[in-house]
Structures are given as C-alpha cells and as structure tokens.
Design a protein that fits this description.
Glutathione S-transferase Yfyf (Class Pi), Chain A, domain 2; RecF_2; 368 residues; binds adenosine-5'-triphosphate; binds magnesium ion
Length: 368
Amino acid sequence: MRLTDFRCYAALDLELDPTPVALYGANGAGKTNLLEALSFLVPGRGLRSAGAEGVARKDASGPAEAWAVFAEMETRDGEVRLGVGARNGGRRETRIDGEPAPQGELARLVPMIWLTPAQDRLFAGPRADRLKFFDRLVYAADPAHAEAATAYDKVRTRRQRLLDEGQADPAWLNALESEMAGHGVAMAAARLDALIRLQGEIDARPEGAFPQADLALDGAVEADLADGLDAGAAEDRFAAALRDGRRRDGAAGRTLTRGPHRTELVARHRDKDQAAGDCSTGEQKALILTLALAQARALARQGGVAPLLLFDEACAHLDAPRREGLAREILATGSQAWLTGVERILFEPFAERVQYFEVDAARVERSA
Ligand SMILES: Nc1ncnc2c1ncn2[C@@H]1O[C@H](COP(=O)(O)OP(=O)(O)OP(=O)(O)O)[C@@H](O)[C@H]1O
Ligand SMILES: [Mg+2]
C-alpha cells in the first residue's frame, strides 16, 4: 500500500502480508487516516464521508495539489494494482493495472466492510444512518445495488425538483416515476436477498462471541416483494403510489411517498428480546459486529473472497471476553481485518496471528 499526500501522510509505503493488521498509537497519530485511505479503494465518499475533495494533505502552504492511494491486492481476479486519487480538488480518478477504470469495477474487485466509532449509536440514532449502514453491507455483496441506489436518488431528486417548482408536465413525471420504480424495486430486491443471507449466516452461528440478532426491513416496496408480488407488479404499484403522492410530496418539499429511501432496518437482540436501540452501548456495538462479521462470512462463502474489514476502534467498549471473541471471529473469516486502537494490549487475543504497526505522528513502523 502506498499513499501520497493523503491526510497526514506526505508519503507512506507499507509492505503487508494477508493476515490482519493492528495499528496502535496515540490519539491523532494517523490510524484512522490509514483506514480511510483504504476505504477510497471502493466507490463512495470514504469512511468519514469526506469525499475526494476533502482528503488532500494540508500544511501551512495550503492543500497538496494531488493525493493518491495505491495498493497491490490479491483479488478474485488474481493480483491487481489499484490506484485512486484526485488532482486540484477535482473529481476522483480510478486506475486498475495502470488503466483508467470506472469506480464500480473496484467494488466488484474489493469487497469491503467498515465500522467506525460514529456508528456506535447506530441503532439508537437516525433511521437514515441505519439504512446507509445496511446498504453498505449489501454493496459489498452486490455492487449493482450501489448503482441502483445512486440512480434512484438521482431520479428522485429530479422529480422532487419538478414538484417543488409546481408546474411539471405529467408525462415527464410519469417517465421519472417509472424510472424510480425500476431502480427502487431492484434496490428492495437486493436488500431482501442480502437480508436473508445475513440472517441465515447469523442463525448458523448460535455459539459465536456476539449476540444473535433478528433483522427485518420495514419498507413499502420490500413488503410487496416479501408478500410475493413479482417485480413488474411491484414497480407498477410503486409508480402508482408516486403518482398519487405528487401533490403531497410537492407541498412537503420532500419525497414522503413510501419507497426504498424511507426503509427502516429493524434489529432486535434475540436473547434479550429487546429492540437494538434499547441495548447498552457495548451491546449495540456487539450487535453491529454481529452484522458485519456475518456479512464477511456470507461474502467469503458466496464469492470465495473474504472482504477487507476496516474496524476503527472496534475494541473500544468491548470487555475482555468480547475482545477475545472478536479476534476468534475475525481469524475465522480469513479476512485481512484492519484494526485500530490506542494501545497494543487491546490486540493481545490475536497473539501471533496479526501484524503489528505502531503509528506515531504519521510514521508507521512494523513492530514484532
Ligand atoms: N488534510 C489533512 N492534512 C494533514 N493532516 C490532517 C489532514 N486531515 C487530518 N489530519 C490530521 O491527521 C492526524 C491523524 O488523524 P487520525 O484521525 O488518523 O488519528 P488517529 O490515530 O485515528 O487518532 P484517534 O486515536 O484520536 O482516533 C490528526 O492530527 C489530524 O489533524
Ligand atoms: Mg482514529
């Protein structure tokens, strides 16, 4: 892995083997920045949602002209050289084996799942964040889901703008709504499919270190599909709901019509028979890990390639038995997990099966 002018790193060159990576060091040392750099190797705005325009290294003379993240990876297509970067605050560019490539191709090559401390209150926080987290799990298994979701949001924004202006041509709205319905049903179907696999993977591991969870998706289109409506009929129904909702959506200035943008991920702690949002901080963290690890196992099974796991501060809030469980479960997935923590001792349960790096003021040194 090589970084150029990314966040606090002017230049970094890391040689790694495929085992998990433990990064330890003081606050502000540069641990999360490393995970964030990796997160740019898949489509999206990275694990801090900063976007390509927000990550160039800054010093007293201002931001660097260009930043880049480069990695050589073992993927399902064999060894691949991936490069991502941006120049002059512009759009990000992607290269695969030195050739310009669309971002979507990266998602297919590098399944990735990340967790950040910002997600610690995911189950008690806003609905949209939960859905985003779940959608990311779906993307890792099904990159086409990301494309459908992006397309859906684009058309939804266009329709809403027309309704806001209040003088849209109904034929034009019909066309947009039928496009929305097409992407929306594809999204809902991908989510349901992922949910079934995920729940199956969770149920298959009752003895795991993390609590069992019961998951459901509460969404209008998801419900239609789960009730057995075929995709065509579900599209017609959703398009009709959008047509009926025009006046209301226009008056509200947002898309109140129930569609995949308003779906709720419902999670329950099975043993406690409690909504995830009512669980303690540590219990919620454990439930999030349940989901992420189950998805990692599902992906390894599905594509034969374990995803990269970027677990920022995953050990914070976990007691010693859960930290041991985390090490066990990560090692069982065969993933190259990247873990951060302020102290090396947090990673003791990995024993010799992790590569340690000490991070100190943007210097990263391998340690025995
Ligand atoms: N664009 C940038 N240019 C230069 N430095 C930056 C930039 N963005 C962030 N930094 C700095 O990078 C440093 C490391 O941040 P990072 O979040 O990686 O630390 P960390 O090791 O994860 O710390 P913590 O344990 O507190 O989470 C911070 O001091 C931050 O101010
Ligand atoms: Mg950090």
